[in-house]
Specification:
The chain is α/β, with parallel strands linked by helices. The protein has eight helices and 17 strands. The chain is elongated and about 65 Å long. The model has no long low-confidence stretch (mean pLDDT about 85).
Length: about 250
């Protein structure tokens, strides 16, 4: 049973989340307290020692990051709640931090709580939080940091370092421009969803490429792309027209 502290400056949001937890997560989550300000939340964390904090991103004129910076040691799990629009929510996905979009959906809540069984260490949590803070400050900028779950833990790389992604069953191999590569516990479809707005294009069922690193393109059928690392990748016939359109936009 996780002891959860709910932090939000809007009472109706606290009431909704508390009610959803009682209805859908009663066997795994018990609410130990609620706070409506950063100062109150600091005191609650120190006195209640929660296992889990549901943390609003914007708390009055402060943020959830202000709170985390005031806590001596983050020894609890964090699930953010946010009303941010899509482009900012993408920062959470890049950083592999759990979040709930307001108004909180019951199914999303159950899924987020279910992930708590896959607990990560304090050092890795700190890395995720740093990546998330960086991504939120950049927002529409290009210097996004992506959290890459590998067989050994997590690696943090900037999106611009990724040259191409290749499917391998339910895993994906990331090839970086400095010749490093990582086998990642995510599908290629997940990377396509994350990276499609950042000059990446899925040219084939098994290949997602960074269009910025194309060296040349040979026609014929769908055609063949030559990447900066000398890799030759077939472009599927059905994706050729869209591929050429995207390349023309660069």
């Amino acid at each position: 049973m996780f002891r959860a502290l709910l932090i939000d400056d809007e009472q109706h949001c606290l009431d909704r989340l508390s009610g959803l937890l009682e209805t859908h997560c009663r066997d795994s989550i018990g609410v130990c307290g609620q706070s409506a300000s950063v100062e109150e939340a600091c005191r609650a964390i120190a006195s209640l020692h929660p296992d889990l904090v549901f943390l609003d991103v914007q708390i009055q004129d402060q943020t959830g990051f202000d709170l985390l910076g005031m806590v001596p040691r983050i020894d609890f799990e964090v699930i953010f709640t946010t009303a941010y629009e899509k482009y900012a929510v993408q920062a959470f996905r890049f950083s592999a931090m759990d979040y709930l979009l307001k108004p909180v959906d019951p199914d999303d809540l159950v899924q987020a709580v279910g992930k708590l069984k896959e607990k990560i260490g304090a050092a890795e949590l700190s890395g995720h939080l740093k990546a998330l803070f960086h991504n939120l400050t950049q927002l529409r900028g290009a210097a996004r940091i992506i959290s890459v779950p590998t067989v050994k833990g997590f690696t943090f790389v900037t999106v611009g370092e990724i040259l191409r992604c290749q499917a391998q069953g339910n895993y994906t191999i990331l090839f970086l421009k400095d010749q490093r590569k990582f086998t990642v516990a995510r599908t290629l479809k997940q990377f396509e969803e994350l990276l499609s707005d950042y000059s990446f294009f899925r040219v084939h069922q098994s290949h997602l490429i960074n269009l910025s690193y194309i060296r040349k393109y040979d026609k014929g059928g769908g055609g063949t792309v030559w990447m900066q690392d000398q890799t030759q990748i077939e472009v599927s016939t059905r994706r050729k027209e869209e591929f050429l359109r995207r390349v023309a936009e660069i």
